[in-house]
Amino acid sequence: MTETAKPVRRSRKAEQRAETMEQIYDAAEALFSQHGLYGVTLKDVAKQVGVHHTLLNYYFTDKKALFDAVFARRAVVTSERRMQALDAYEAAAEMPTVEGALRAFLDTDLDTYIEGGEGWKNYAKLGAQVANTPAWGADLMDAHFDPVVLRLIGLLKKALPDCAEQDIFWGYHFVTGALMLTLARTGRIDKLSDGLCHSDDFAAVKERMASFMAAGFLAICKK
């Protein structure tokens, strides 16, 4: 009886630790998405979870270590999903098109936020902050997203073999700028459109963004 009970206790302890860590990540993600890296303390996160702040000090050397772990948790998922979508698109397409490549990249990401609930929307907002804060965000973007971005660039080069390489990179720059503004959910388009459009309507963005951006690539490459 004793020999069988020990693994059960260890398993339950491991499960409890995993649940606590998820609660910490979720709470930190929500707070960081609202207030940024410098607007949140480890005590704020601990209070949100309902644990003593020394627990966070035990698992994380400092606030930046927690921030990096929170960001990495979902970055791995969205990066892998888009990489798989790009691979599948290239395998299925006789000749890749600009819009096809962009849909594999953009629509897959937007679907993740549409289907993922509020946690994924918090991560989207956090990602927009990271992408636009070079001081502490550039390394995170480079580490987690360069491979999938360069995979997209490679497909765009195949779809636009006569296009200047710099125009393809500028095109991607404009794409990611629009995507990050969308993920930030600032509410500005809600006010400008007098409620006709909503910044959290990712389904409406998905319906339009790839087509819009594909036309932009074709336009700058024609010259």
Q: How are the SSEs ordered, and which strands pair?
A:
Elements: H1 2-35, H2 42-49, H3 53-59, H4 63-92, H5 98-115, H6 117-131, H7 134-159, H8 165-184, H9 188-192, H10 202-222
Helix pairs in contact: 1-2, 1-4, 1-6, 2-3, 4-5, 4-7, 5-6, 5-7, 5-10, 6-8, 8-10
Question: How would you explain this protein's 3D organization?
Answer:
This protein is mainly α and 223 residues long. It has ten helices and no strands. Helix 4 crosses helix 5.
Notable traits:
mainly alpha, 10 helices, 223 residues, elongated
* Number of distinct beta strands: 0
Order of helices and strands: HHHHHHHHHH
Q: Assign the structural class, choosing from mainly alpha, mainly beta, alpha/beta, alpha+beta, or little secondary structure.
A: mainly alpha
- Low-pLDDT residue spans: none
Task: Give me the Rg, rounded.
Answer: 21 Å
Instruction: State the helical fraction.
Output: over 70%
Mean pLDDT: 93
State the distance separating the first and last CA atoms: 78 Å
Largest sheet: none
Categorize the overall geometry: elongated
Continuous helix count = 10
Strand content: under 5%
